[in-house]
Amino acid sequence: MRFIDEYRDREAAERFAGLIKGITTRPWTIMEICGGQTHTIVKYGIESFLPSGVSLVHGPGCPVCVTPLEIIDQAIAIASLPGVIFTSFGDMLRVPGSAKDLLTVKAEGGNVRMVYSPLDAVTIARENPGRKVVFFGVGFETTAPANAMAVWQAKKLGLDNFFLLCSHVLVPPAIDTLLSSPVNRVQGFLAAGHVCTVMGFEEYIPLAERYRVPIVVTGFEPVDLLQGIYMTIRQLEEDRAVVENQYARSVRREGNIPARKLLRDVFAVCDRKWRGIGVIAKSGYELREEYAAYDAGKAFDVAHITAAESPLCIAGEILRGLKKPHDCSAFGRGCNPEHPLGAPMVSSEGSCAAYYHYGRLLTTPAEATS
Amino acid sequence: MTEDADLAGGFACPLPLTDHKTVLLAHGGGGRLTQQLIQSMFLTQFDNELLAPLHDGAVVTLGGARIAFTTDSYVISPVFFPGGDIGTLAVNGTVNDLAMCGARPLYLSCAFIIEEGLPMEDLWQIVLSMKKAASEAGVMLVTGDTKVVDKGKGDRIFITTSGIGLVPPGVQLDPRNARAGDKIIVNGPIAVHGIAIMSVREGLGFETRIGSDTAPLHELAATILRSGDNVHVLRDPTRGGLASALNEIAGSSHVGIMLSESAIPLTDEVRGACEILGLDPLYVANEGKVLAFVPPSSAGEVLRAMRAHPLGKQAAIIGEVVADHPGVVVMKTGIGGMRVVDMLSGEQLPRIC
User: Closest-CA residue in chain B for A102?
Assistant: First the structure.
């Protein structure tokens, strides 16, 4: 299949593996930001192509994983209300809240529907004027434009029964937080190609300069990742720290300008809590004042709902790249995809789930942690 | 239970411990939760030697004849889909369960649960599809039942079919029979049916119409059994996809399975749809597909015979049974890495991005 097979080609993968081996003289620790990249790394066994000193740590780029527990609980509370149709992307439905997940709400009779686009939720709102239709708007800059478009369309159509439960997060402030931590061990970053397709990569340049780290915008196929890792290690070995673009077939420096304009029109940057990490300043989107009528967090009485994480779950350390799933005492025992303690075990992009499904028997136990 | 326990009121088994207080959709998804439900609820109470193999059907000996007996319910939505409808599926699915026991399918029963308000026209079309499928499979629908439920208490129409067939002497198929060295053959591209159904569900408009591959497999199964000495296992990988069927067999036979990703037949349309939706084709449902576990000595002959059959033109050896890692399915990926192919966990849900 064109545009896919080229990037899953065995010879190309082996060529980049050879190049990486040829230039690597020291151990390096590289973080891939995006959960989709984590998934590819584990699914295709990318680590088996790398020299033993090169360590990949998995970053906080799984939207399902970083959505705070209280927002999940708020979603569950809203979805349980009579007269509500609660819509969501598929993989949010199984994320455990404090007491249950959205699939359980559905099993108990709640009107919970999986949709493939927030615009489908707008259509449902048009077709069900007597009901309140809520879309669970989570994710990074990648999913934000479609959610902004849904709200923009709802306003244009004059709908008063469409709401967005918004928990959008932004990548650059998270990188800043990770790099400014005294326990940081990440020496280079693979930035998420899809996020940069929307936003471009200019905002990563000051981060690379300030913290002296290479940042390589990288795609999601196995050969993309091997090439991105090669470009990162080449910078590290040459003592350079700049932003480079491996994913040039999709990413332009300035990003997608109409999408960015829509984001600015609909959303304002706000402080946002990240599951397992805590509040990061200016790291999320909220609906602007002129769209406040579409904000499910305001339209429903859920702001008082708070929640506490399972004390056994080390998701916070995993999301910050300090530990790997194997380091968790609950991994595969008290915590598995049927009975997850934390979100990284739920989403197909979560690093715990990726390790559980693909790597349990084949990946060696993690190297020493922080 | 001690002897002095009070049994006057009758002995009641405690509710088995499960993670879920209510039944979830995933309990019917063919993956790990389905397995848990079968193991903890049904097997503990219904346990007997005919049920124990957990085959697609039971094989019972009656008056010297070996009879395969199976049942299946069909609750598919939408009722009509590209390549077939619920009626086609209700006949072919049960015919195939018999075929996987090595049986020649003979007689089917048919029970309808119909929701009030179903257009007669739709019911007629379903009945005609069943007649056509039965005629193609050489089976007769010999008994049945009809129930109608209130509007809102069903989803248009549910059909349950049961079937019996005759197992020829010498045929010994059992999911516990896979042996190290066996070659694993599939008769064609996987994941077609699941994607065909998804393509017509709300919200997905694909440019290519992908039709379901539902088909009666009894002739192909007979061809496989004729051409290969000592075929060990036949299995139609339906719900839960190829991955779940292989995991079940690896578990039942206490063997490992090594797949080769590049050998698994897949059409471009299905691959593309899976890429867009973030689905793994190994977990997408199939109809009209059979997995054959064949000793290496007869694998070449079986493959040739399958390719000569209209339903096996694209048959391929996709892997083999190994003595290592019993109970676990491992796949060599297209780029040369290795990964575990786990059983479907919950429902396969499309990813956010």
Answer: B24
